[in-house]
Amino acid sequence: MSETGGASAFPSSQRRGGATASGLARRGGQLGRNVFAGLPLRLRPIGLALRALLCEEGNALRATVLFFVIILAITLPLLPAAPAAPQRIVAIGDIHGDLDAFSGILQRAHLVDPTRRWSGGNTIFVQTGDFLDRGPKARGVMDLLMALQRDATRQSGRVIVLMGNHEAMNIFGDLRYVADDDYASFADDKAKSRPKGVYPSRPAGYVERCEALNADGRYGKWLRTLPAMARVNDSIFLHGGISPELAGWTVDKINDAVSGEIKAFDAYKQYLVEKKLALPCSDLDELTNAARAASEKAKGKDAEILKGFLAYGGWASMAENGPLWFRGFAQWTDAEGAPQVQRLTQAFDVARFVVGHTPQPGQIVSRFDGKVFLIDTGMLSSYVSGGRASALEIKDGQVSFIY
Fold it and tell me: Which DSSP letter does residue 118 get?
């Protein structure tokens, strides 16, 4: 059949410019041979099938469109992607149960919307510990931090919550700074019906809070996952600071030490409960007194276990020079601190340390030529006179403050 005769079977709209079916087929076949010859081996079967389809007259138009769709599908992923928005880091220090002030600084730092849902995109948010104790809404703060950890990942963001000395204190049963309102937030409908003789003179919600923060409790499980330190790019974040004797340690070694001590404490406490020496919700003083009394008569393995527990004062998670408690970054003079901080930044190969713990009322403080930033600005202003919420932002290598 001639091209003219074949064209008369199609509407005029398909014959403009001599675009006959057989012509399209021939051109499609030639184009297919030229293009498909350069396809990767894994795409050759698709190319051969499409070339055969292009050479069939009845399918010429359909196949030609399909051909270019597939070519686009193959080539578009190979095009350079648009540059990602620069990732920023935002750090917030001690919260101490002040949920409202915490929510406010999160909004001013563009990390959450007015409903407290994550809106920070791919930002990395670091909270440097001490969200528990002193204030009335510590439970609400935990709920918000846990929710943000889940929500941020949906926008390629990340929330890192660190352990402060007050989180460790609560795990160990040092409850001196728990507010009555915090206990009350855990009280359930059965609180009033529980016998008072087991834990006399305890506030309402004491048992429920204890159970929630125990190793198998909702909040206790989460608290025990928190690291003591985190390295993000060229910065290290932690609650207290790093004493010079830890210069030879690594971030992982310090985190493993604190985590191991918490696991050991849980095992010691379980031992004391099983031996009927303490109750499941005994506080640290009660556990300590029980262990001391039992150690006077204990022998063999029991004596070793009790001795190990009573040595907790030297643990990294409890000692004054440990990473949760050390205050040298804030208390060193410029002269004594400069060489120490220089040594630590070199040992850990970072540009700066960002810490909380020691309040700097109302203002983030930079020390030692920007190698240390003190970000506990007294968010709970009822405890720190002149305090207010703040956030430290690192973006494109530049550090700035948000109030």
Answer: B
Structure tokens at 216: 């198998």
Hunting for tokens 């915490």 — which residue is that? 102
- Give the pLDDT band of residue 337 (cuts 50, 70, 90): very high
Domain ranges of the chain: 12-78, 89-402
Q: Mean pLDDT throughout 28-33?
A: 50
Q: For the purposes of burial, counting CB atoms within 10 Å of the CB of 347, is it exposed (0-12), middle (13-18) or buried (19 or more)?
A: middle
Instruction: Specify whether the CB–CB gap between 139 and 213 falls below 8 A.
Output: no
Nearby residues of 152 by Cβ (< 8 Å), 6 or more positions away: 118, 120, 123, 125, 158, 159
Give the full edge-to-edge strand order of the sheet including 372-374: 229-232, 235-238, 352-355, 372-374, 365-367
In this predicted model, what pLDDT tens digit does every residue of 354-393 receive, in sequence order?
Answer: 999 999 999 999 999 999 999 999 999 999 999 999 999 9
The DSSP bridge pattern shows strands 124-127 and 158-161 to be parallel
Q: Are 57 and 23 spatial neighbours (Cβ–Cβ below 8 Å)?
A: no
Distance CA 358, CA 374 (A): 8
User: CA nearest 211: which of 221, 202, 196, 224?
Assistant: 221
CATH superfamily of 89-402: Metallo-dependent phosphatases (3.60.21.10)
Instruction: Determine the Cα–Cα distance for residues 106 and 104; give it in Å rounded to an integer.
Output: 5
Q: Which residues contact 400 (CB under 8 A, 6 or more apart)?
A: 392, 393
